[in-house]
Specification:
The complex is a heterodimer of chains A (155) and B (127). Chain A is an alpha+beta fold and 155 residues long. Chain A is built from 4 helices and 7 strands, in the order αβββααββαββ. Chain B is globular, with a radius of gyration of 13 Å. Classes of the chains: A alpha+beta (155), B alpha/beta (127). The interface between A and B is medium-sized, with 28 and 23 residues.
Chain lengths: 155, 127
């Protein structure tokens, strides 16, 4: 039986393929964000049988490409707002699919509206540690995801 | 005969994707209207005739569930079918929404074939 991290990894890879038409190249535990390609950080909260927060960090250029893939446009035509919007929707789909995958088809989860902000690369080391942190290389650029769970919110 | 569609989602990218996927499915579209949340959608529906509404659940100001409940209270849900387009996959949630009068449920991401099946199911295959 797969652990939480492995399920999350499978879901993230699957959603990236089906939503953004992007394929995972490698997986690893370390990452370096390219200079000059400001990362964006998206967070979404979920509440239900289990509560938690999902975070995804990706370079802006990758988010622009994601938006372009989804819309069938040239990445050069994609502005910052659309790039942020694509990342928000990505994390939204990942979270919905992940809660279903982890906790079954009967559990209801309430998802927050995703929030996107610029990410301070000095925080990157913090994202690289932890059992539920996932680092991927997509189109030669790093993507990091972190799943924080709060078990038994009402013991 | 082309369908007039209202797409309700706080994400502009998703609204474009829904429209694009409808067109790719071969569905003939008339007027395509968009709203960023349930409240905007209800305001539009006061003056707009649509054949079908595609709505997200999770939106600021007024979510899709409250929008559907308001449409049920005013009787609008009897004449304007609503399809929920969401990332949430819970069977319990889907059953709750159908009990409130939602006609169909589409999981994101979806293909042109999946949306075409929904259109045929809800609108009777006129496209």
């Amino acid at each position: 039986m797969k652990n939480t991290r492995d399920v999350a990894l499978d879901v993230i890879k699957d959603v990236l393929e089906r939503f953004a038409f992007m394929f995972t190249e490698t997986e690893g535990e370390t990452l370096t964000f390219p200079a000059g390609d400001d990362p964006l950080r998206a967070t979404i909260r979920f509440q239900g049988k289990v509560c938690g927060v999902l975070t995804v960090v990706a370079p802006k250029s990758l988010c622009q490409e994601m938006a372009a893939n989804v819309l069938g446009m040239d990445p050069a035509e994609i502005g910052e707002t659309a790039a942020e919007d694509a990342l928000k929707e990505l994390i939204n789909i990942i979270c919905g699919t992940l809660t279903w995958s982890l906790y079954g088809e009967r559990e209801v989860f309430h998802l927050s509206v995703p929030v996107v902000a610029r990410f301070d690369v000095n925080q990157a080391a913090d994202l690289a540690i932890g059992e539920n942190n996932i680092a991927l290389m997509i189109e030669n650029r790093p993507v990091v995801a972190r799943l924080q769970l709060i078990e038994d919110p009402h013991p | 005969m082309p369908y007039n569609v209202l797409i309700v989602d706080d994400s502009p990218i998703v609204r474009k994707v829904v429209e694009k996927t409808l067109r790719l499915s071969g569905t003939e579209l008339g007027e395509v209207s968009q709203a960023g949340n349930g409240r905007e959608a209800l305001d539009l529906l006061k003056d707009l005739w649509v054949d079908i509404v595609f709505a997200d659940i999770n939106m600021p100001e007024m979510d899709g569930i409250e929008m559907v409940e308001r449409m049920w209270q005013t009787g609008l849900l009897k004449t304007v079918p609503v399809v929920i387009v969401s990332t949430e996959r819970s069977v319990t949630r889907i059953e709750e929404l159908r009990a409130k009068g939602v006609r169909a449920y589409l999981n994101k991401p979806f293909t042109p074939e999946e949306i075409k099946t929904i259109i045929d199911e809800v609108l009777g295959g006129r496209s």
